[in-house]
Design a protein that fits this description.
Elements: E1 2-7, H1 11-21, E2 26-32, H2 43-46, E3 56-57, E4 71-74, H3 80-92, E5 96-99, H4 112-125, E6 128-131, H5 142-147, E7 153-164, H6 170-175, H7 182-187, H8 197-207, E8 214-223, E9 228-229, E10 234-235, E11 240-251, E12 254-264, E13 271-279, E14 282-287, H9 292-308, E15 313-315
Parallel strand pairs: 1-2, 1-4, 2-3, 4-5, 5-6, 6-15, 7-12
Antiparallel strand pairs: 7-13, 8-11, 9-10, 11-12, 13-14
Helix pairs in contact: 1-9, 3-4
């Protein structure tokens, strides 16, 4: 039996509780969230399940069965600087770590000092730490890196993730500014973006041992071309319906990696498309795209066994065994 402690019980954390609870060979022995309205509640009931006999605790030291835990699943923050103390604490208790922190997916060039500190601490504690998710962590970095495996030569990699944001959870819709006016968007510009684009560019380059001369990222708002109103969203024509973000990686001044991320309410043709230019040149498209909330929760669960086998230190998706679906976790 593999014993899990969850840290962070928002929408993704609750979905993870449901996904973890249904897997054979996995037992949730603790759940942590500092929200006073959650503390003391049964973790299963909090996630819409029957009681599982685990009370939500305010911090790691308050988890009654902490000494039984093997892995911490951290779904709290996107900022690596803010989540790193949680990682350090979990590692200090001898727990392997899987986190959905976007900036943890490939931090070696973006935040080298924090990455080094986490890596050294995990090695000292003989535990492994991984940042993963659907994006970053799979669709716009790991998957295109895998597709280059069949190429004799690569000239350029371009990825497009175009998705209708309406079905996504509310925190995601808020993060991309849905329903704001243009003035409100500009005022909140620093906090409205999809986190992890540069990390994805860096991961692809790392996979192919490319040394990038520059990485740049642009963001622009997407305006609604019609009224978008239902029980989930209320957007007038002309208001912000989402964002378009582009990351570019250069070698000797030449653009060799292009990542286009567009998430907006009302998108009519969602898709995930990877174009590999080289020998051979080909395009792979997932028509309809992958639902981000389902996929993030699923890959986090599926990565647990791979992280347990990964060896000590800070890992990326390029370092671990393929995090394939499993019916039952190995002890």
């Amino acid at each position: 039996m593999m014993n899990i402690v969850q840290m962070g019980l928002g929408p993704i954390g609750q979905q993870l509780t449901r996904y973890l609870a249904e897997r054979e060979g996995i037992s949730i022995v603790g759940g942590i969230d500092p929200d006073p309205n959650k503390i003391g509640n049964d973790l299963g009931e909090h996630a819409g399940l029957q009681k599982i006999g685990v009370e939500i605790a305010p911090d790691l030291d308050s988890v009654a069965l902490l000494d039984k835990a093997d892995v911490a699943v951290i779904t709290t923050l996107s900022s690596l600087k803010k989540v790193s103390p949680q990682i350090i604490e979990a590692a200090g208790h001898g727990l392997d770590i899987v986190s959905t922190c976007e900036e943890l997916s490939h931090p070696w060039q973006t935040q080298p000092e924090v990455a080094k500190r986490i890596d050294e601490h995990c090695r000292k504690q003989a535990v492994s730490c991984l940042g993963t998710g659907v994006n970053p962590g799979f669709l716009m970095d790991y998957l295109p890196s895998v597709l280059t495996s069949v190429c004799q030569k690569i000239d350029k990699v371009k990825v497009e993730r175009i998705q209708d944001a309406e079905p996504r959870r509310k925190p995601f819709r808020d993060k991309i500014g849905i329903g704001l006016t243009e003035a409100e968007f500009k005022a909140k510009r620093d906090s409205i973006r999809h986190v992890g684009v540069e990390e994805s560019v860096r991961m692809i380059a790392d996979a192919m041992n490319w040394q990038l001369s520059d990485v740049e990222e642009t963001l622009e708002l997407v305006k609604a071309d019609r009224d978008l109103k239902n029980d989930r969203i209320d957007v007038d024509k002309g208001q912000v319906s989402g964002v378009k973000q582009v990351g570019r990686g250069y070698r000797d001044g030449k653009e060799v990696i292009t990542l286009v991320f567009k998430a907006a309410a009302g998108v009519t043709h969602s898709h995930d498309t990877i174009n590999i230019s080289g020998t051979p040149t080909f395009t792979s498209t997932i028509d309809g795209g992958i639902n981000g909330d389902i996929a993030t929760s699923a890959i986090t669960v599926n990565a647990i066994c791979s992280v347990r086998e990964a060896g000590a230190g800070l890992k990326t998706m390029l370092d671990i065994q393929v995090p394939a679906y499993f019916d039952e976790a190995s002890p």
